[in-house]
User: Fold these one by one.
Assistant:
Number 1:
Amino acid sequence: MPDRNRRVLLARRPAGIPQPDDFAIDAVPVPEPGPGEVLVRNLYLSVDPAQRGWASAEANYSQPVPLGSPMRALAVGVAVRSNSPEVAEGEFLYGWFGWQDYAAVPVSAIFRRCAEAVPLSAHAGLLGLNGLTAHLGLTALGRPRPGDTVLVSTAAGAVGSLVGQIARNLGCRAVGLTGDDAKVARCREAYGYAAAWNYRTDDWAASLAREAPEGVNVYFDNVGGPILDAALRRMAVGGRVVQCGTASVASWAEVPTGPRVEREILTRRLVWSGFVVLDHKDRFEEAIAALAGWYGQGRLVLDEDVSEGIEAAPGAIAALYRGENRGKRLIFVG
Amino acid sequence: MPDRNRRVLLARRPAGIPQPDDFAIDAVPVPEPGPGEVLVRNLYLSVDPAQRGWASAEANYSQPVPLGSPMRALAVGVAVRSNSPEVAEGEFLYGWFGWQDYAAVPVSAIFRRCAEAVPLSAHAGLLGLNGLTAHLGLTALGRPRPGDTVLVSTAAGAVGSLVGQIARNLGCRAVGLTGDDAKVARCREAYGYAAAWNYRTDDWAASLAREAPEGVNVYFDNVGGPILDAALRRMAVGGRVVQCGTASVASWAEVPTGPRVEREILTRRLVWSGFVVLDHKDRFEEAIAALAGWYGQGRLVLDEDVSEGIEAAPGAIAALYRGENRGKRLIFVG
C-alpha cells in the first residue's frame, strides 16, 4: 500500500469542461481518521460527466468543489482503519472518497456497502450512480410502457448503455444516438438497441422517423443542444422527455439560444422533467435489486473502460466529453 | 327568431392571428336538422384563443377549419327542433355550434347540457372549456399544494382569471401578469391575486423575485415567449410549468429562437407539461362540480365581456390577442 496519499486537486476554476491543466497532483501523508471516521484506501476512481458541474462556480445543484482540495468523485475502496462501530476494517465501500489514494471520511460519505455479487468495479457504475440514474431516470420520470419506443442520447455511455438495456428488459424498443461507428455497432450488438445512429455522420432524424413513425414515447437525454431540438420534434403525443444531462452544451456562461419549444410541448402534450438522481433516494434499493437481478440473469452487459494510475485522472473528464470512453470510465489506483 | 342563418365563414387561411378580413359573413336559409340531429338556435358565441389554431393550416392538435365553412366555435344555444330522443326542444346546450345563428348538429356536437344554477352565459366560460382548462390544467398538471406560489400569465383573461381564483381557493398564493394597469387592478381587487404586474411596463421579474424569494412552484403559462423565458428562471426546485397556450408568439411558420432551457429544467428539476383540455374528459364533471360549488358560495368572480351582434365576430379573435377583452369574451346573437 502506498505510504503517501496522492491527490488530484482542483487547481483553478474550469471555463466549461475541466481540462488537465485545471488540476494538480500532490502527495501528502496518509491522513489519520478522526473520531467516528473511516480511512478508505481507494481502488476504483469514478469519472463522471457530473464532475463538470461540481468543479464549476456556476449555480448548480451541488456546492462547487473548493479550489485546492481533492476533486470530488465517487470511488470504490476498502476500509483499512475504522473508528466507527458501523464499519468493519476490510469492508468494501462505495462513496464520496475523491480523486486520491486515501480518504479519511465520516460514515456519511459512504454511499453504499459493496455487498452484491458483481465485480467490485461494478459498484462504481452498474450499481452506482450511473445505474441508479439510468434505472430511476427511465422508470420514475420516463414511465415506459411495454412496446414504447425509447430514444437515448449518449447511448453507449455509462448511463446510456444501461438505459437502452433496461428499456429492452422492460419490453420497450430502444433506439440510440452515439458519436462514432464503433459505438453504434456496440449499441446494436451488445446493448440491445433495435437501431442506433452516429449523430455526427448519419441523417439520424430521418432514420428515426422511418424507424419510429409513430414518434418517440420516451426520450432520455444526456446531451441537450441540437440533438434535443430535433428529438423534441419526433416525440409522440404524450411523450416523456427526461433531462438527465446537457453534455453537448459547452458553456452556459452566456445562455445559448435554440428554437423555441413551448409549441412542441403544448401540441404534443409532452412531459419534460429534470432528473437528478439524489432526489430519488427512496427508490435506490429497489433499483439496485432490479439491476443486480438482471445482471445475475445475464440480461445486462457491463462495459468498463479502466485506466491504471492516478495520473490518468486530470484528463479524464475532458476525454469523457470528447466521447473517447468505451463504457464506464474508471481509474484503478489499487 | 331570425328567418335566415347568418354565418361567419373562414374565407382564407390566416397568416398567424386571424384578422377581420380572414372572415366573410353570409346569410343562408335556416338548416333542416337531419335524422337524429338537433337544430340549435345560438345565443352566446364564444371567442377563444384556441380558434387561432383551429383556423391555421399548421399541424396542430385538431383538424383545421375548412375554408368557406362556418368558423369553428363553442356556443350556448337552445334546441328549437330535435330529431333526437336524447334532446328535448327548449333545452339549453353548450357545444360545437360554430359562429352562426343556427346549427343543425348531431348529438355528438353537444358538449354539455346547461343545467347548473349559473347565468346562461357562464356555461360558455366558467363551466365551459375555459373553466375546465383553468381547473384541470392547474390541478392535474400543476399539482398545487397549499402555500405554493402560483404564477399565471394572461392573469385577467377568461382562463387566467379563473386559475388565480382557483389557486387561491386551494390555499395557494397567486401572482399574475397581465397587459394593462386596469387589468392589474382587477387581478388584485377581484381575482384574489396577492400581486399582479403589467408585463409591458413593470420590471416584473425583479418584483416577482422579491414577492416569491423561494421561487415559483407552479407557472400556468398561456403566452410562451420572453415571459416564459423569464418565468422559467424564477421557478423553485421541483416546480411545475403548465403550457396551456403560446399566445405571445405571433407565428410559428419559422420557429423563433430563445434562450435554451434544458439546464433550467435539469437543475431546477422542473416538470413542464403540455395541457390540452380535451385530453382530460374523465375529470370534466369533477371540475365542473368544483367550479359550480365555488360560484354558488361566492368564491369565484365571473367577468364577462359581451358584444351584441354577429358582426362583432370577425374581429374578435384579433382583439383577444391584443388583450382588449375584459374577462370572458362572448358575442350575444339571441
Number 2:
Amino acid sequence: MKTNPGRFFEDYEVGQVIRHAVPRSVSGGERALYHALYPARHALYSSNEFARASGLPDSPIDDMAAFHIVFGKSVPDISLNAVANLGYAEARWLRPVYPGDTLRSESEVIGLKQNSSGKTGVVYVRTTGFNQHDLPVMEFVRWMMVRKNNLDAPAPEAVVPQTAAVVDPSDLVIPAGLDFSHYDFGLAGEPHRVGDYEVGERIDHVDGVTIEEAEHMMATRLWQNTSKTHFDATPRADGKRLIYGGHVISMARALSFNGLANAQMIGAINAGSHANPCFAGDTVRAWSEVLDRAEVDAPGVGALRLRLVATKGGEAFTLKGEDGKYLPHVLLDLDYWVLMPV
Amino acid sequence: MKTNPGRFFEDYEVGQVIRHAVPRSVSGGERALYHALYPARHALYSSNEFARASGLPDSPIDDMAAFHIVFGKSVPDISLNAVANLGYAEARWLRPVYPGDTLRSESEVIGLKQNSSGKTGVVYVRTTGFNQHDLPVMEFVRWMMVRKNNLDAPAPEAVVPQTAAVVDPSDLVIPAGLDFSHYDFGLAGEPHRVGDYEVGERIDHVDGVTIEEAEHMMATRLWQNTSKTHFDATPRADGKRLIYGGHVISMARALSFNGLANAQMIGAINAGSHANPCFAGDTVRAWSEVLDRAEVDAPGVGALRLRLVATKGGEAFTLKGEDGKYLPHVLLDLDYWVLMPV
Amino acid sequence: MKTNPGRFFEDYEVGQVIRHAVPRSVSGGERALYHALYPARHALYSSNEFARASGLPDSPIDDMAAFHIVFGKSVPDISLNAVANLGYAEARWLRPVYPGDTLRSESEVIGLKQNSSGKTGVVYVRTTGFNQHDLPVMEFVRWMMVRKNNLDAPAPEAVVPQTAAVVDPSDLVIPAGLDFSHYDFGLAGEPHRVGDYEVGERIDHVDGVTIEEAEHMMATRLWQNTSKTHFDATPRADGKRLIYGGHVISMARALSFNGLANAQMIGAINAGSHANPCFAGDTVRAWSEVLDRAEVDAPGVGALRLRLVATKGGEAFTLKGEDGKYLPHVLLDLDYWVLMPV
C-alpha cells in the first residue's frame, strides 16, 4: 500500500527517533494569515520596529504558529491512529522563528505503557522543531492513547517518563538580545507590568469570537496538520468537524491581549487540557488566572505563569464541577509562562 | 481592572491627542489576503511592473487596506463605546504604503458636542496614520455618537469643526513620481480615460458577491479592528454578526473595476454613509455616478470624483425614497476622488 | 457602455491574439494562502531548502497556482459568455514561478466551429502565461462553447485544431537545474520512486475535505478569476455558488500527496473533464491510476503519467456507468504527467 497507514502502538519503541516529513518555509504570508485568523495584537509580533526596539532582529512568527507547524509535522507519524490526546508537558520555546526560516521536526519516543485492555497503549514522545540551521526552535512532550493493530504483539516494558509539573523559570530560554528596558507601553497597548499582576488575580478577557468551519480548516491546513477529523464532515450527522485544539489555544491567547497586552512572548507551556471539543458555531471566550511570577536573566524582562481558560459560553472563572470534572462549557485549560516587562 | 473599558464621552477634550497602540508591519501577505478577500484587480496594486511603469518604486498595499489599518488602530481608543458612526470627511491619502512598512496611528479630538439627552455626545476626531519614518500616510476626520458613563459630568463647551464638504482637488496629494504618460490601457483592462467619463454618467458594475461570515471576520481581524460586534454572534438571535462597514467599501470598490478599471488610486474620501447594515448572506453589488472631473499636477494624471453605492439587491441607481431616507437595499453611499490617466 | 460585455462567438477569428489584462505579482503571501486553502504538502513547494537541494534557486509557487493565475487572466476575454468549458489539452509547465515574479497571459484563437443550431460555436484558444522577463511559464489549449450575440453573423470557416491526446514525454520541459540525485525521501514523506509504481496500479488517497463557500471564493478571487457564477448566490434557489473547477483540481492534487508524495512537479496536463459540478458541502476525495512511466533528461528525474479522479462520495475507482457517462459522484477526471525521482 502506498498511502500512510500511520503507526500503531506496537510499532513504537522507547529511544526511537522519528524524523518527520515535509519541512516548511515561512514568510510574511504565514504572519498575515495568523493575524487574519486570530485577533492577535501583541506588538512584538505585529511590528518589526517594536521587535527591534526589544532587541530582536525582526518581528518573529507568532510563538503559537511555530508550535502549530512543529506539531503538525508530527501528526502523520505520531497521532494518525491516536484515540485521544492525553496531555502536554515541558513545552519550551528555544529560539524565535523569522520569515525566511524553514522548520522541520522530529520526535523521540520517551515512554510506552500498554493499557490493561490489551487493545491500546499510551505513547510518550518529545517532539523538537529545528530551523534550517538545525538549531532547535521549540520542544514539547505529549502523550496520547494509540490503538494496537496486532493485538497479539507483546506488551513492551512499561516506561513512564517523569516530566516536570511546571517548567522551572530558570529553564526558560530567553531569546538572545531580548531587552524590555526601553519598552513602549503606549505602543504595546496597556500599562501593566509583571509587578502589577498579583498571584491569584483573575482577568475576564471580555471579547468573544464565533468560530467558522472555513477559518479553522484554513488554520489547520496552514500548519500542514492533516488529521482528517478536522476536515471531513461525513463521519458526523451534523456535518461538523472537530476543531484542532491548537486553534482554540491560538484564539484564547489572542483574546487574552485584552488585559495581558504585555504578555508578549510565550516561554513555556507547563500543561494543557482540551477539556471539551470545540465545533463551528461555538463562541470562544477566555479568562486568565495569575499562577506565579518569576525573575529571568534579561534586561527589563520578567516571567508570569498564567492559567488560560477558553470557554464556549458559561460564566467566567468557573472551571470544574463538584465531581472534579471540567464543566461542559470549558474548552481549554492551559498552564503557561509568558515573558513580559518588569 | 486590567481590560480596556474604552473612553466615554466625558473622557474626551478638544485638542487631546491619543496615540493608538499596536503598530503593524505589512508584507506581501497582507497584499495577497486583500486579493483573496476582495475581487481587486486594479493593475497598480496587482503588478510591481505596472506600478514601476507608473513611476512608483513598487506596487503599494491597496489604499483601502491602508485606511483599514489606520482606522482599526483607533477602534479601542475611539469607538469602543460608540453608539453610532455618524460620518467621515476629509480623508486623504498622503503617501503610498509598501510591503515592509510599519503603520501606527493617532487621533486628535477636534470637536465635542453633548446631546440634549445628556446621555450621549458627538466626538469628532482627526486620525492620522504614520509609517516607520513618522511620515503621514493618510488622514481622515470621523465623528460618532459616544455614551456618557458618568451622567453627572458637565457638558463640555460645544465645538463643531468645519470640514470640507468636498476635498478641493488642489488638496489631493499625488504620490511622488506618479506618471501615467506611458500608461498601458491594455494591461490595465479598459480604454477609458478621465475625459471619457461625463459628469452625471452612471455605471452599473454588474457583478455581485455573496458575503460569508468567515471572510468578513478574516478581513476585519487582518486590520486588527477588534470591535466585538463583528465577531461575536451571541447578541443576535439569528447568529449573524454586523459586518464592518469598511468591508463593504472594499468590496464595492473592487467590484467597480468593471467600468472603472483605470480609477487606479484613491485620492480622497469626501463623505461616506453606511446607509444600512450588511450581514452574511447579502449579495453586494455596486454602481457609480460621476460627480466631477479635475486636473491635478502630475504627468498624465487626472482626477475623477465619484459616488460609489453598494447595494444588497434592489435596482441599480435607486438610492433614497420620497422621505429622503436611504432605501433599505442601500448599504453604502461614498463620495470620493480617484486618480486616473487623462 | 463602460463595463465589459465579453466576446461573443462572432467576435473571434482564427489567428487573433488577445493580450489579457491585469498582470499579477506573487509573493510568499500567495504561497501561504495556497497552503491554507489546500492540504498541500509536496516538499518542493513547502521548503526553500528542499527546493535548493533539488537544484532550483528557491521554492516555486505551486504549479497549479501558476495555472490558476494564467487561466484567471483569460476569463474576462475568453469565457465570460461561455456556455460550457469543453476540454483542456497540451498544458505544459515551461518555467517555475517564484515569489517576486509578475505574471501576465495572452491567448491565440486556434480554432472556431459554429454549431448547427447557429446560436453557439466552439472556440479553441492556446493561452500562454509569461513572467516579467516575457519568458513563458506555462501554456495550455482549451475549448469552450460560446454564445453568438448577432445570430445573423455568418459562420466562420470551421477550423478544428489537432491537439495531442497525450503530451509526448520528450516534450516535457524540465526546469533548469532540476536534479533528484540527492533526493531526501524521508523529508519528502514517502519512499516510492517512479519504478515503484506499476502501470494500472490504483491508489485511494483516503482523506476527504468538506468544501466551504468562503474557501473556494477566496481561492478563486486570489487568481483574479471573476466569473460571477463562483461568487453570486442569487441565481440559485439554494444560495449555492458553482465552484471553480480549478479549486477541485488543486484539492484533489493536494489530497493525492497521500500515496504520491514524491510526485513533486506537474509536467503537463494531457486532458481534463469536470465531470459534475461541485458545491459547498460536498466532501472531496481523490484516487489515482498509473497510466504510464517515462524517462526524462534530468539527473534522478523520471515521469509518471497519472489519472487523478476527484469524487464527492461514492466508491473509489468507479468512474463511468454502463452508458459511458461519468457517474454522478465523479467531479474531475484529469490525465497528467508528474516529475518524480527515479
